[in-house]
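Service request form, structural biology core

Requester: graduate student, group of Dr. S.
Request type: structure prediction, single chain
Budget code: on file
Notes: please return the result as structure tokens.

Sequence provided:
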Amino acid sequence: MVLWFGSWMIPPTFSRIGATPIAFVVAAFAFWIATTNLFVNPSYTATGSYYAAFLFGGYLLARRARAIRTSVYSGAVAFGLAISAWALWQQAAHGEARAHGLFITPATLGSTINLILAPGLVLVAFGVRRLDLAAALVALCTALAASESRGAWVALAAAGVVTFVFMLRAQTRLERTALLRVAGILAAGWSIAWLLRLAGDLTGMPQLFIGDEATQSFRSRLELYGLAIASIQRSNWLLGTGYQAFYYFLEAGRGAVPSYSTSTTDFVHNDYLQALLELGVPGLTGLLLLVVMPLTHAWRVARDLPRPEKAVLIAAIAAIASMAVHGLVDFPFYIPLCVLIYGAVLGFADDCDPQARFEHAPRLPTGLRSDVVRRAVIAGAGALSFWILALPVAAEAASLYGQRQLRTADAQSAAFWLEASRRLDPRDWRYHWYAGQFWSAQAATRSDPNAASLADRAFAAGYAANPREVRNLYERIVLHRRLRTLLALPADAETMRAWANHAVELAPTDPVVQAERERVFKQFPPLEISK
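Core staff response, request fulfilled:
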């Protein structure tokens, strides 16, 4: 919402912003993510709506920020320096094998840095001579090298090739001194990273593309790809399986992915495969268009633009190319920060087209100014977006406060807020699970039938909200096995065995779930049918 309101506080320069094909695709892709997640996804996640908002919000902000493009990029560089410093300090002070900063994985750090680094290198290649920019780019290169993300390295190299091709297309003169400065920045960053690593643990240069770690990573990705392809063949090709549903396919199909027998991931490590699986053919089409359309648009207009606009356009294309290539082996399109920056570079690239702006708004045939209709549509979309995005925030706040009250032994207040959270966002299975655990503990402690009934209802609602998630079903099985005397209608033996079998189907390698199934079958053995 800050992006939305902030974009409208920036007055558009020169002329009114017009609708473009890229704008339509950005809006349609964001709409598809949000609507399929809200109305189709069996494993609804609140993050789907926010990722759509990050993409569209970043695009909208950049489209209106023509007058402050330098400030926007300077802010991005400052942020890049902060996360780079954090990552390098983390590696030096705590002996991290690979720098990752505030991100869970080094690959995410590398993808984020590329979105800031690649445009900066393009600006240097266009002849920008600023010592502060060069120093910042060296620091970004150092963090990129320290991340040891092979996917990020390949993505940056691919962005360089794409940049070179587009500079030739734009008939841009390449000065040898500018190219030497780019090479010097890259060499300096890589050398500093190597020296820091050498000084830290004396292990020598960062890992290269060959070696046991790289081979294992490659095999692991092939296993994930195989599981995703098999899941796609069984899924709905139009609507997909639901945003961020791959986690559940991995949980149920770990036998096909031996490398993840003791760990987990939410990502296929190929965003295009994951988009086809989770968002169907329309989702994959939208993602591909968000990659291809800026390139074709730039190829069409680059030659006719003035040199400063060429620099902005090709800098944006470099960022787009880096993320598009990295998405083949990792998951940058599923990282909110990367999605936000990608939306912004789409906006900057689109804004370089003179046809993206028009001087006067057309009039409707009825004589009603289009401004009135446009503002009404914007107001309606803003109100709907606010409602969709505000409810998960309210539910999360209520849940956190309820858990805090529980830690202070205020059970009555905890009950109120935990129940409020699951009513605010009933599609999110987590809030039912939290409330169910609370009531289950109350029932066990006080032998309270009412608490047991409330726990049973909460777990049943949580499983109905997300039938792919095992935790609500598991807790309900435990409740009906341990506290069945407190329940008015405890599940019969056949139902208990069916629940236990289904829980193992959802999480076949979870030892806790397997142990509970054994306890259920021991307590409710199947009847032997005599011949």
